Fold this sequence. Notes:
By secondary structure, this protein is an alpha+beta fold. The protein contains eleven helices and 13 strands.
Amino acid sequence: MGQMEERAAQTGLNIRSGNATACWVFVCNPQKWAIDRFLERGIENDTWGIRPSDRNAVAPGQLGILRVGVDRRSVAERNGRPPLVPGIYALCEVESEAFIGTGAADEFWSPENKRPPGWPTVKIRYLRVYRDHPLAINEIRAARPNASKLLLNGFQASTFPLSADDFHAVIELLGEYPDDLPAGLMQRDLTANKLADLEKKYLFASPEVKARLSRTVERGAVGSVLKRLMAFKCQLCAALGSNSLGFLKPNGENYVEAHHVMPVSKGQIGTLGASNIMILCANHHRQMHYGNVEVIIRDSTFEIGIDRKHVTIRRAAVYEV
């Protein structure tokens, strides 16, 4: 994206309640909630109580880590198992806005510590579980001694925000790559008519989730429809008067790629839509990301400055998909 586009189209990312947090620590006290028994069940979806002060900052698509503190359960409460090591036991994604919970009283809660009704609650999904090989807090402390004191020393609350630097340090120590994380159900079952709802839902998502979502749209149903609409031709090659057809794939289609002109990470409503996608050859797709290219987004066209030339490409209309 070039300076022309930034001047013409950027309006800034809306930050909910002035809080740009997109990474969270979900705090678990095993004496209150038997996290080890829960994780053994392989349950993918759950709810989590959050601090009232966080209710307006937690949003779908934000990522979090599940931190277990000191395991003070008795031998009997642990069913003879060794105590849990303080550390990171799961990587999660928030899947809802905060809502007023009806309470939690499942088998994993100790009788006197069940979550009462009325507590702010969010739906979460477990992306990765490290029950048998948690990332110990001592490992984090050794590798990143200047990390958040709340992360290293513990915090007696249900949630707290984590800086992007600390979150990525933990992810790296876990051996995870954001690009390899599973997509959400709504992303796996994505169709064109779900885009508006989807981008509203993920407006405050973590950058990693937005990037994953962008690739899902580009490679999924919407991208496929637009590729067929453009006859599998590179729109930029065609506008420049060069050969617009790439190599043939085994299925007989010419190879092209879909590109979001305004990055989804900008947080603008409409960035996931078909009218923000351009069909390009692999070379021009890379040039749009890394080359000296300037773009102005008009109501029905993209005006592009590339290789000392200026061309105009029409934007796909909503009804075309």
